[in-house]
Design brief:
The protein is an alpha+beta fold and 257 residues long. 35% of the residues lie in helices and 17% in strands. The chain contains 5 helices and 11 strands. Strands 1, 3, 4, 5, 7, 8, 9, 10 and 11 form a 9-stranded mixed sheet that branches. A two-stranded antiparallel sheet has the order 2-6. α1 runs parallel beside α3. The N and C termini lie far apart (107 Å). Keywords: Membrane, Transmembrane, Transmembrane helix.
Length: 257
Amino acid sequence: MFPAEWSKQTKQFFGLQLVCNLYDLGLDRKEILTFSEGFAYYFSHLPKMQWVTLLFGVACLIYLGSASLLILADCPVSLYHEDSRLSTLLWLRPAYCLYEEWTRKAIDPSQATCWTATIEVEVKPAGSNSTYKIGRRFPVPHCSPMMEDPFVLEEGLAYEMGPTLICFNESCTKAVLPGHGYSVRYVLYNQAQSLLAATNWSQPFQTLDPPLSFRSIDVDFKGASGGLVIIIVLLSITVFVLLGAAWSAMGSRNHHL
């Protein structure tokens, strides 16, 4: 990827710096590899001084892009409420006041208005370095203390995470699995699709385990001893005999009447 005359240490330093900056921008492993391959192709077709200039320019752009991402630590991600977990779906509380928090901390709040900005939900499965997203973006919700109460939320305002997630390049999908953890963060975009701010990654939200099927319920007497089985059978016979005797007594009484 880098010029052959560079030392091994120099190549490792620039390569590691490039990968770290791309990762900070939210690219996953596959996207970083694709970017690096294209980067290497253009390097191999440029004269010496031009690739030095290009390397410096790309490094500056990547650094500025990663540095300009504002992290909104005061906007935590949470579930809609404690019962909003299914085996393949999670309901998330909308990103209330995220846009307002960005306008208070942004250098140039005029980059986006609350009517044109959108919020994307990014998802990272536990134990994986890959990042996915929900298949739609959401408008900026109203920032009001009343909307913080999950029991007064209007139906349809919560963010539905699942049952399918989408890759960043929208070329693949991934199912939300039962009994798995998923970390979530909200990302703010303006009308020009420029990334403005993001929340911190949440702690993993656990989906419910798959429900038990009827076939998995043990209805035989494998766990019962022989004596217990005999007692159960005798009690059952006794109940049937008593019911039969009572039925006969009632029948004879009605006959005499």
